[in-house]
């Protein structure tokens, strides 16, 4: 069954169908490219999409991928609000960790290039007046993230990103920059 997908890159957004069998994450991480059929293309600096036929985007160029499939969200997860900047986009959503997760002592590290977020809001940072795209879940290219703001240290989730750690609820509510950033 085809997967309906929106793929956000630094230079625009492609929308269409992925006809290959499998999960969107597997297609991005194993096949290393995202083939989109019946695609429309919207450049980052344009407000209208144009028919593009078939396009293939290298996985490394995909900053955010939103599909209509069930991504297999963890059942017993603790969810953390997270804000990201990736290329020209600002993304807000929730990141899953297992109960009791301590990022400083965790032995397991995220595997793969893409991290799953739920309850996602995405906007073009330079044009907030254009509105926000909302989705139930999205795959974020963890190597394309420039800045992250969260309530726990996630440096190994998003290598190379500037990290801001939020103070717990009830404090002054001011973000505190993590050491070493």
Describe the structure.
By secondary structure, the chain is mainly beta. It contains one helix and twelve strands; from the N terminus they run ββαββββββββββ. A twelve-stranded mixed β-sheet has the order 4-3-2-1-5-9-8-7-6-10-11-12. Strand 1 (3-9) and strand 2 (12-18) form a beta hairpin. The protein is globular. Mean pLDDT is 82; it is low at 170-181.
Blueprint of the fold:
Layout: E1 3-9, E2 12-18, H1 24-30, E3 33-43, E4 50-58, E5 64-67, E6 78-86, E7 89-97, E8 114-124, E9 133-141, E10 145-150, E11 162-165, E12 176-177
Parallel strand pairs: 10-11
Antiparallel strand pairs: 1-2, 1-5, 2-3, 3-4, 5-9, 6-7, 6-10, 7-8, 8-9, 11-12
CATH-assigned fold name of the largest domain: SH3 type barrels
CATH architecture of the largest domain: Roll
How much is the radius of gyration in Å?
17 Å
- CATH C-level of the largest domain: Mainly Beta
Uncertain segments: 170-181
Q: What is the element string, with H for helices and E for strands? A: EEHEEEEEEEEEE
Number of domains: 2
**Helical content (DSSP H or I, runs of 4+):** under 10%
The shape is: globular
Mean pLDDT across the residues is 82
**Broad structural category:** mainly beta
Task: Write down how many β-strands occur, each being a DSSP E stretch of 2 or more residues.
Answer: 12
The number of distinct helices, counting runs of at least 4 residues, comes to: 1
What spatial order of strands do you see in the largest sheet? Answer: 4-3-2-1-5-9-8-7-6-10-11-12
> Ends: how far apart?
44 Å
Biggest sheet character: 12 strands, mixed
Strand content: over 45%
